[in-house]
Amino acid sequence: MKFRFFSLLFFAALVSFFACGDRSGTADGQVVGSEENLDLNDFYAFYQRFHADTVYQKAHIIFPLKGLPREVDSATYARDDFFWQKEDWVVHKPFDFELSEFEREIKPFGPNMIQERISHKISGATMTRRFAKLADGDWHLIYYADLNWVTRPENGQ
């Protein structure tokens, strides 16, 4: 019962973020659809399954995946040439934001792209993930910057 309540609460918060979020900007041609077609239920179902099913997760990541490693050094950050490889991928598990020292910000970028930032409340270290609904109609992880104290600008790739 408690789990169901928190699931409904999370879903309501997710809907609120999308309803009030900035929807300006477009993706670089990899996404399809329009803002009116943004299906929050669809994304929420994907997000839940992405964290629950390891095979599904790996199948919904575009490898090699652009991003940043944990605690990135300045040279790697400046080169902007880091890619996660499928064989080295560590499966992502869901965060419990109620019991952890992490908080989340979800922001839509265009009609079919969502950026999620998860930050440590005390240190400010942040990880960033970008999800996009591609031409195949499915959501995919298209960018992942592991926990770092620096982040790229929102419009950076």
Q: How does this structure look, described?
A:
This protein is of the alpha+beta class and 157 residues long. The protein has a single domain (2-148), classed as Nuclear Transport Factor 2, Chain: A (Roll). It contains four helices and six strands, in the order αααβαβββββ. It has helices at residues 2-20, 40-52, 54-59, 74-79; strands at residues 61-68, 83-84, 102-108, 113-120, 126-133, 139-148. The protein has a six-stranded mixed β-sheet with strand order 2-1-6-5-4-3. β3 and β4 form a beta hairpin. The longest helix has 19 residues, at 2-20. It is globular, with a radius of gyration of 16 Å. The N and C termini lie far apart (41 Å). Mean pLDDT is 78; it is low at 1-35.
In short:
Helix content is 28%, strand content 27%. The chain is built from four helices and six strands, in the order H-H-H-E-H-E-E-E-E-E.
**Structural class, judged by helices and strands?**
alpha+beta
Looking at the chains present, what oligomeric state does this protein adopt?
single chain
* Tally of helical segments: 4
Domain count: the total is 1
Global geometry = globular
CATH fold-type name: Nuclear Transport Factor 2, Chain: A
Number of strands: 6
**Radius of gyration in whole Å, from Cα?**
16 Å
| Global mean pLDDT | 78
